[in-house]
Amino acid sequence: MKNNMRVLAGNLICKLKENKAELVLDENIIKTIGENCGKTAFVTGTNGTTTTTNILNHILEHDNSVISNVTESNMDKSEHKTVVYDGCAKYDWGIFKVDMAAMPLVSKLINPDYIIVTNFFRSQLDKYGAEEYTINSVHESIKPETTLILNGDDPSTLYFDDLNNEKIYYSKNHSDFSQRNTHVEDLIFCPKCGARLEYEYIHYGNIGKYHCPNCGVKNPISDYTVTDVGINEEGKFEFEVNKKGQIVLNLLGSYNLYNTIAAISLARKEDIDCETIKNQIEGIESEKGRMEEFEINGNKVVLSISKNPVSLTEVLKAATLDPSEKSLMIILNDSEIDGEDISWIWDADFSDILKTGNIDNFYCGGSRAEDMAIRLKYEDFDLDKIKLCPSKCSMENSIEDLLNEEGNNSKYIIGTQSAVPQARKILVDKIGDE
């Protein structure tokens, strides 16, 4: 850092207390950060904001100086992201992940050039409330001069139609991973007239190609579209954007294609050339705790966060695509940052993962381990394969049991917000690296 003039900006975004967003920084620090950035972009939404922010950072950093509250974050501090900020430095870009609930507060202090909205789903209802409330929070935070980058396959995008802002839409065409129906349905009623939407296909949750049989509303015309999705011999996603050359994505989970195209949309708007975008994306590795892969004792260990029905369903779907013999662990906590209401696990779709036939055991850990075990029981999962790790057992011992299990070489650990940093520390200690 220049001149040793560092300001610990801490949690730029906010903390949530008693369902109210509360900034934990001096507002002047946040204003100064914004003023010292040539351009700024916010990334907000329910799922995928961390990954989208990191992908965007990775692309922009090729030719720009960037400050962000994600790439420098300390995973051990969970939701309290940390930025170390040089008070004298100027940055070409400020890229900030902004909690949906904090958008009204942060938008008063920084006027962003762009806002990327990833999606809206049910998530931690006791913290955020209903989806309509969070959508309204974001909607009311938007200033006229900000360019919006919106998920054209998410019907929630229609809530922003009344704004006159410049809008850029991104989408994903039908692929082998698309579905006719989904068991996890959020916001499936038309925002215009209230009728139930009909889908030609669904990628996940309520994201897909839709139309309203009553008022005729449908997906907006997309500016940037993911096409020709496939998986190469190394198990990585290949895709094109607007039919302009193949890109390989080194991230698990087909939902990450949406996070990628969201970042690409801003980059292309800024006239960053396709070759630079391709090269930067192909150099991306999984970030901490989000489908992050470890190799421990010759086994592949995948760690991922999950905090709502859609994210858990999609992480399980990614594990389903893994053809190897495997065991899984879900660590379900109900602390304040996890959300004390854990009823969402009943809305997640376990049907595909439990039918794959290549699961040896399913470990249930965390403060609500018993609830997860009951959830699996009601899916008629083989009771002999349900391994209960109740809260009185240490997470380290539970993970040790999973890692020492013989007969498979793939292990998946899925945890709620507070569980993932602890699980990651255990895994990092195992490999003796950080």
Keyword list:
single chain; 434 residues; alpha/beta; nine-stranded mixed sheet; six-stranded mixed sheet; 12 helices
Provide a descriptive summary of the structure in words:
The chain is of the alpha/beta class and 434 residues long. It has helices at 27-35, 49-60, 103-107, 125-128, 131-141, 256-269, 274-282, 309-320, 351-354, 369-377, 395-404, 419-431, and strands spanning 6-8, 15-17, 20-22, 37-44, 66-68, 84-86, 91-97, 114-117, 147-151, 167-172, 198-204, 207-211, 224-231, 237-241, 246-249, 292-296, 299-305, 326-331, 359-365, 386-388, 410-415. It has a 9-stranded mixed sheet with strand order 5-7-4-8-9-10-13-14-15, sandwiched between helices. Helix 9 links the parallel strand 18 and strand 19. The longest helix has 14 residues, at 256-269. The protein starts with 5 loop residues before the first strand and ends with a helix. 45% of the residues are buried.
Question: Radius of gyration, rounded?
Answer: 21 Å
Number of strands: 21
Number of helices: 12
Major sheet: arrangement of strands = 5-7-4-8-9-10-13-14-15
Shape designation? globular
Distance between the termini: 22 Å
Estimate percent helicity.
25-40%
Describe the main β-sheet briefly: 9 strands, mixed
Strand content: 15-25%
Secondary-structure-derived class: alpha/beta
What is the arithmetic mean of pLDDT? Answer: 85
Show unreliable segments.
1-22, 72-82
